[in-house]
Design brief:
Number of domains: 2
Distance between the termini: 46 Å
Order of helices and strands: EEEEEHHEHHH
Number of helices: 5
Number of strands: 6
Mean pLDDT: 90
Radius of gyration: 18 Å
Shape: globular
Largest sheet: 3 strands, antiparallel
Strand content: 15-25%
Helix content: 40-55%
Low-confidence stretches: none
Structural class: alpha+beta
């Protein structure tokens, strides 16, 4: 495994354990060159998934993009990386269980939105502000009003 920090070709596995739901192996690794540590996940890939983006552009599915987008939405929020990774793995399992070779990007976005709603309301709103592509402040206000209504119903 190549080090994501310095690009060194070989890294050492320091610890391996199954994830909480036993769907993957979590490995803590260290680079002997730069001595940085990082985590990798090894899991079974059911099938290759292609993402169909707007404009019908297609690209291979990359689960890391889900984690990165959730991390951006949850930056400086009280949500642990392990919670984000667990939610992202659940999204990946849902996508794989659909049995489709091609999945529209908006469907992935909806699953991410659902996961963020459960993790952190502010992260959910941040993600929605990009995902929903609001045209003006009134669109954003309408969305916030709907979120507040949902929150009141849940209380």
């Amino acid at each position: 495994m190549r080090c994501p920090f310095c690009g060194h070709e070989e890294t050492q596995v320091k610890d391996s354990r199954p994830t909480e739901d036993n769907s993957a192996i979590r490995r803590r690794r260290a680079c002997p060159e730069c001595e940085e540590r990082f985590t990798t996940f090894e899991r079974v890939q059911m099938r290759e998934i292609t993402v169909v983006k707007s404009g019908e552009r297609k690209q291979p599915f990359d689960p890391d993009k889900i984690i990165k987008s959730m991390q951006i939405a949850l930056r400086k929020r009280p949500v642990e990386l392990a919670e984000i990774e667990k939610a992202a793995m659940e999204i990946v399992r849902q996508l794989e269980s659909m049995g489709e070779a091609e999945i529209r990007s908006f469907k992935i976005g909806q699953l991410v939105m659902n996961a963020l709603m459960d993790l952190d309301l502010v992260g959910y709103i941040r993600y929605a502000s990009v995902y929903k592509d609001f045209r003006d402040p009134d669109d954003f206000n309408d969305f916030l009003n709907k979120v507040q209504e949902l929150q009141k119903k849940a209380s």
